[in-house]
Amino acid sequence: MDTKTFREFSHNRILQATIKINNKIYPSAPVKLPPFCFLDFNNKGIEITEVEPLLNKKKKSPVDFITYSTIQKVEIGPIKKTTVVVFAPGVRINLDLKIFLNDGTYLHFECEEMSMVVDLSSLLITHNIELVDIFELADIFENANSNREAYDYLYGHLDELAEKKDINLFRS
User: Radius of gyration (Cα) for the chain, nearest Å?
Assistant: First the structure.
């Protein structure tokens, strides 16, 4: 896929992604859905590489590279997804990530893990990029004693927070 097609595809769909920040990969292994692409946040920008279907391996050549100077802002938020847990319906919380570019377009991703939001926040601040974090996810993870504690807090309070902000969190 060429860069133009990829950008149109990402603008019109939400792409499942694996994210790498500070040499840490999130999630380390996909839980529910295989990723479509791999986002590597490095010192110069974001290298985006497609993932081989079924193999969960990055393809050799990046499909896109976004320099930090071309990013207007990044929006993050939680998304609730229905899942099945031992024969009963359950809910998991994923990270919704939108990268808005200076040309008025955006790329839309979803990641099955959100514990990287503290590192993502620090990285974006370093590059003077606005992070819109309406649920204060970076603060929740930074102030928690563990990732499990942060997720437990979100599972217990997310509906209440979303209701106050009049935001629908469910995505199928």
Answer: 16
| Structural domain count, the chain | 1
Residue 171 belongs to a domain:
no
Within a domain: 125: yes
Interatomic CA distance for residues 90 and 73, integer angstroms:
32
Residue-wise pLDDT tens digits, 37-49: 899 999 899 999 9
pLDDT in tens, 116-132: 999 999 999 999 999 99
- Does residue 86 sit within a domain? yes
- Report whether 101 contacts 6 (CB < 8 A): no
Structure tokens at 118: 């503290």
β-strand 15-21 against 37-41: which pairing, if any? parallel
* The pTM of the whole model exceeds 0.85: yes
- Its domain, for residue 40, covers 3-165
Strand partners, 26: 19
Q: Torsion angle, CA of 129/132/137/143, rounded to 10 degrees?
A: 60
C-alpha pair distances (Å), 107 with each of 6, 8, 28, 140, 159: 9, 8, 22, 25, 26
**Spatial CB neighbours of 98, under 8 Å, sequence gap ≥ 6:** 74, 75, 76, 106, 107, 108, 109
* Helix then strand then coil, % of the chain, to nearest 5: 30, 40, 30
